[in-house]
Write a structure and sequence with these properties.
Blueprint: H1 2-29, H2 41-52, H3 56-64, H4 66-76, H5 84-97, H6 107-123, H7 125-135
Helix pairs in contact: 1-4, 1-5, 1-6, 4-5, 6-7
Protein name: Chemosensory protein 7
InterPro entries: A10/PebIII, OS_D_A10/PebIII_sf
Keywords: Signal
C-alpha cells in the first residue's frame, strides 16, 4: 500500500510539474515570426497554448509507465540519481508545493494541475503534508 501511494504521488507531482516546465520553457524560448503580418495577443496565446498543452493521452502514458514514474519519484526524494527530466522536476517541485502554480499555463493546464493536486490532497492527505514539509521551505 505504501509503495502504491508513493507511486501515485510521484505521478501526480510529475504531471503537475511537467506542465509547469513546459510552460516555463516556452516562455523563456520565445517565438519569432517569419511573416510580416502582425499577431494579435489572442492568436499568439492560442498558438502557444495548443503547442504547449499536455494532452490527456500523454497523461495516460505517464500514468501507465510505473517504472518511469518510480524513477522520477526516487530522484525527487533524493534516493537515486536524476536524469535531465528529473533535474528539471527537482528544481520545480518547491514552486509547485508552495502553491505558486504556473502563471504562464493555459486554462486547460491550470485545470489539469488543480485536478491532480486536489485528488492527492483528498486521497492521500498525510503524503501531501510530507511533500509540503520536504519541499515547502
Amino acid at each position: 500500500m505504501i509503495q502504491s501511494t508513493q507511486t501515485f504521488i510521484s505521478i501526480a507531482l510529475l504531471l503537475f510539474i511537467q506542465i509547469a516546465i513546459l510552460s516555463m520553457a516556452s516562455a523563456s524560448s520565445g517565438t519569432t515570426s517569419t511573416t510580416s503580418a502582425p499577431k494579435t495577443a489572442e492568436s499568439a496565446s492560442a498558438k502557444s497554448s495548443s503547442k504547449d498543452e499536455i494532452p490527456d493521452q500523454t497523461f495516460d502514458r505517464y500514468i501507465n509507465n510505473e517504472r518511469y514514474m518510480l524513477m522520477q519519484y526516487e530522484c525527487l526524494m533524493g534516493n537515486k540519481p536524476c536524469d535531465h527530466v528529473g533535474r528539471k522536476l527537482k528544481a520545480a517541485v518547491p514552486l509547485v508545493v508552495r502553491g505558486l502554480g504556473c502563471p504562464k499555463c493555459s486554462q486547460r493546464e491550470e485545470d489539469q494541475m488543480k485536478r491532480i493536486v486536489s485528488h492527492v490532497q483528498r486521497s492521500y492527505p498525510d503524503k501531501w503534508q510530507k511533500l509540503i514539509k520536504k519541499y515547502g521551505n
